[in-house]
Amino acid sequence: MNPQALRGIRIVLVGTTHPGNIGATARAMKNMGLTRLFLVRPKVFPHAEASARASGADDVLAAATVCHTLDEAIHNCTLVVGTSARPRSIAWPNLGIRETARHCIDQGSHGDAALVFGREKAGLSNEELDRCHFLTRIPCNPEFSSLNLAASVQLLSYELRMAAGGDGGAPPECTDPDDPLATSAELEHFYAHLQSTLIGLGFLDPHNPRHLMRRLRRLYHRVRLTHRELNILRGMLTACGRHLDAGRHPPPPSP
Amino acid sequence: MNPQALRGIRIVLVGTTHPGNIGATARAMKNMGLTRLFLVRPKVFPHAEASARASGADDVLAAATVCHTLDEAIHNCTLVVGTSARPRSIAWPNLGIRETARHCIDQGSHGDAALVFGREKAGLSNEELDRCHFLTRIPCNPEFSSLNLAASVQLLSYELRMAAGGDGGAPPECTDPDDPLATSAELEHFYAHLQSTLIGLGFLDPHNPRHLMRRLRRLYHRVRLTHRELNILRGMLTACGRHLDAGRHPPPPSP
Q1: In terms of domains, do A188 and A160 share one?
Q2: How far is A71 from chain B (nearest CA, A)?
Q3: ipTM for the complex?
Q4: Which has the least CB within 10 A, A33, A60, A83, B72?
Q5: What residues pair up with B94 in beta bridges, in sequence order?
Q6: Which is nearest to B79 in space by CA: B111, B117, B109?
């Protein structure tokens, strides 16, 4: 068991309605050795019911970071996995929950990993899912899949503990230490750069964007870009932008 | 997934104090496709709080078998596993919870398997543990191991579902059957198109290409592009190429 491996994991709850669920989440996390709770626009927090349901995990509640946006909560994360109860019309890249846990633990040397849980009734919006590199779905009875929020956190936290060797299993492997994964913030800059370039090229119509950016996000999230790869892609966009600018402002004719 | 495999599993709660925990247990079971709940001398049952916490798993509660003794609850079982939160002075034979789940599912052809959960505070007595063939302990933070009863049932029920094949095996990389993966030949066309565009942009020097194309190949191979994604990328290259051509052959000045 490597408790250090769990320190890089953020549990992010988006728009939670019932404070009791926040408390029960803190308890579920602490039971499995997780400590970093992020709350994006909780409906009520702090609240007596949250503290009551935390029953002993008050330290996790007290240290929780309350954010205005999901972007704040996942800032600097190199892996962001959303949880989803229902199948989506456009397929997001999927991971099983055991695989998700392994990937999150493997992050250790790169940066933080975030597991994002949506609202009790409505889950995550498409815009929030756009921020996620992968989606994971907890396997459950298709005829009764109303898994409670804290129960979902409990199951994923347990799998994280197992992946961290909590059952005495093998320690996780590690990737190229000289080329770390790009962070969420770097990826967002890239997407903004890509979007403005595509508009400049006339390939993306800002008045009728359809699903173009969502599809491209999905592609680049899935590949898990390294820092160096991201720089190459941004270099390509910059080269393209120079040509667009030159076309827009042609150099003065030589005398 | 073989739902039949879960029918031979009994969840046995011994001496439960809080009816809410019985309700939450029913919900946790039904979420994972388990249906057979046995209650040995529950303090209060039935109870409004049990029904409230079951939130939709009332059928599991209504079908629960209330027993006077643990022996009644495990009658005819060919495997009985007790759950324990604390280490015992005399070592019972132990199984990990994943192993426990596998053994329980393997019972199928032999008879029922019972998972026995003790009282909220006191767990199982030594006499009750004597009835168990094995003991299992859910891995958790040794400094905060107060796992709620329903949370323990949730975790074991989940492992049972996984052992019964409930994760449907490894998730496919591309979940959309209408959008197959790109073929090698399509990828080669894309790489050639990408390379000529990058040369046109002045980003790739054909006399000193370094490892640029190799890095880009690695990136796009890794992501396993779908046919539709490849078309989007090629569309972007074509749009870029049109601008390059326009720059090279500027339209005649308007009169």
Answers
A1: no
A2: 24
A3: 0.75
A4: B72
A5: B135
A6: B111
